[in-house]
Amino acid sequence: MTAQTHIRQLLFLLLASLLLQACRTNSPEDASTLILNARLVPIEDGSTEQRVYVLIQGDTIAATGPMSRAPQPAPNTTLIQAEGLYLMPGLTDGFAALNNQSYADAYLQMGITSIIAVDGGRRGPFYAGANPSPMVFRLEGVGDEKTSDEELLHDIDSLHQAGYRVLLLMYKLTPRQIQLALDKARQLGMATIGELGYTTYAQGMDMGIDAFVHTTRYSLDLAPRDMAAAVAEEPFSNDLQSPKWKYYDYLSRLLANDSALIAHARRLGASDTYLLPTSSLSYLDLPEHRNPWDEPVARMLSPEDINRPANPETGQHDIDSVEQAAYTRLILSELHTLEPTYHRYGARYLTGSGTDVWGTMPGISLHTELELMTTYIGLSKREALAASTLNFSKAFGWKIGRVQSGYFANLLLLEENPLENLSALKQPAMVMVKGKVVFPE
């Protein structure tokens, strides 16, 4: 038995016995948990690794600090001795689907404690019955078709009343309507993500959209305006002769020293808007990609549930060679030219996998996104971890992504330091969502 396996088994037995005791004596509202002797992963700027305690009351972190200040546990407090383990906030997938319980389980077992849930169309219906589940912030779009100001504001009100927390501002919204939508969203406390067309991304930054999604979309300002306008009219065509694909070919030919690219990168870096590249959507188009079905967690997933999945045997997309070559040119341009330039000029990032479109898979593809951010785009491991944790609190004002008093107790315990090896995130020793240990169950 390896030392790591021994730690995992001891932790599992301890949690099983103590959580059983807690369930017998505490209601969910007054339940308390005390994590001791964990090594806090220093994700925050200027922070250093230290041994800490974390006191959790119900679903929230009540207190945290160095072990020298750890409180005495109150009666019936669940104790988790985390000696030798690394503590950090749970990961967030900022653009993903939740279609069934297997998806929820895959997210959790890969350390993902929050998702922005996208549904409908290719991604299928949202599954509201997942238990256990990551925290869910549901997203819906407005402006995929032309609309009046009155209809736009009515739709936003309806979405808010239905429990949606994130507003996707789409192609057919004019600059005036974007401003109307932003004012309404701020009034209602809704986050905003832009996938724009009639409105430029420069205008979106100036108006204060919280985040932009998809490299190919927020690079639209690089194209001549007539080309961008044609894409806005028909943004989802798969025809290689469509305006979208003519624009993609244009992007693929840009060089890193292109003046328009550098100017756009400077604007992105100077803005308060975060970027969700969703590069993992094109991971299978990279020549050197791995087969995602080889990941252990893939055993609980079915190819029938995934949009255009990789062939489980080969790991490849079963598509026409001409189409495959076009997609490969595009992703190589994104990862070698566009995103490294944006990062070099100060762009700030959030992680989103795009699951489950184009072969992306729950849990697995967020780790692909982290890998692509560090291997190609140029983020440090600390920057990549921030993109999946604390940057979501900065971008949207949510109480997630930090080991801090007042934040939701969405936490991971790891056997290795992820700042040395990001793959450690794929096998957490413990996953906690809103104060409840959901893995191992």
CATH superfamily (homologous) name of the largest domain: Metal-dependent hydrolases
Cα(first) to Cα(last) distance is: 22 Å
Number of domains: 2
Question: Mean pLDDT score, rounded?
Answer: 93
Describe the structure.
This protein starts with a helix and ends with a strand. The protein contains 13 helices and 15 strands. The longest helix is centred in the last third of the chain and has 24 residues, at 321-344. Helix 3 (149-161) packs parallel to helix 4, helix 8 (243-252) crosses helix 10 (321-344) and helix 9 (259-270) packs across helix 10 (321-344). Strands 1, 2, 3, 4, 5, 13, 14 and 15 form an 8-stranded mixed beta sheet that branches. A 7-stranded parallel beta sheet has the order 6-7-8-9-10-11-12, with helices on both faces. It has 2 domains: 3-89 and 401-439, Urease, subunit C, domain 1, CATH 2.30.40; 91-396, Metal-dependent hydrolases (TIM Barrel, Alpha-Beta Barrel). It is α/β, with parallel strands linked by helices and 441 residues long. The chain is 35% helix and 18% strand.
Helix and strand layout, with pairings?
Blueprint: H1 3-25, E1 32-40, E2 50-57, E3 60-66, E4 78-81, E5 86-89, E6 91-96, H2 101-109, E7 112-117, E8 135-142, H3 149-161, E9 166-169, H4 175-188, E10 191-194, H5 201-207, E11 211-213, H6 215-218, H7 225-233, H8 243-252, H9 259-270, E12 274-276, H10 321-344, H11 364-377, H12 381-387, H13 390-396, E13 411-414, E14 430-433, E15 436-439
